[in-house]
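REQUEST ID: PR-0412
SUBMITTED BY: lab tech R.K.
PRIORITY: routine
TASK: structure prediction, single protein chain
INPUT:
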Amino acid sequence: TSYRYLHSGIINQGLMLVFGGNTHNDTQYSQGAKCYSKDFIAYDIHCDKWISLEHTIPRDFSADLDRFGHSVVKYNSSIYFYGGFNGQTKSDIVRFSPGQCGQVKDQGDCVASKQGVKCVWNKKKEQCEMWGLERSGKKNSVEKCMKEVRNTTAVCLAQKSCHSCLANTGNCVWCSEGCHSEKCPQRKDVKVVRDLNQCLESESNEICKNLHTCDGCSSLDKCWWNSEKQCTEKKGGVGGNNNESEEGGERKEPLGHCPVS
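STATUS: complete
OUTPUT:
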């Protein structure tokens, strides 16, 4: 998928539907990215995979879809996109009606379906069904993802923490201070971690490190905005009225009182 912001996103039956946004990035080689995008893509939450939904837009569809800054809501079984901006303020409403899973009769076609909803194959009933929360705990009764050969080495090597390493679907293992695919390098003193509960690094530390503003950092009690303008996990408590950390003596900015840059 491509980088973007000011897009819309909504969860619908196991998929995160993403529409439009600004995909232009002056800090990187553009490759033709546009300020006003009409991309329609989906993230398959269960299979950890991005898919394109461009084929769901009729070829003779005459509406001007390029936009960013719009809103999205779900009502009954349809998705509604409203307004936005593409050089001028828009006031139109675009409705997307996802497809159905029941008419798909083949298992492979079912799990590969790209109709705006997550289709799964019911092994007992031998039929294609729409994914729902009521099926989330029945892992062995449904087929959710296509069985495909996937090069997970790059995926695993890109993970920088124990939690992100073990939380993805790439069959990764955490090896002391690095993430590897399936097995660890054969070296001395390498501790193999395959269970999230065995990660030594605090999950809070990873969350805090990904917050890059004082307000965002200060909104979580477990995070600390330090003097180097970085968000880190709070190791000590906050004591007294001077609002200082017991660990470093640094001042914690109260929520809503962060310096204005």
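NOTES: Residues 237-253 have pLDDT under 50 and may be disordered.
REVIEWED BY: pending
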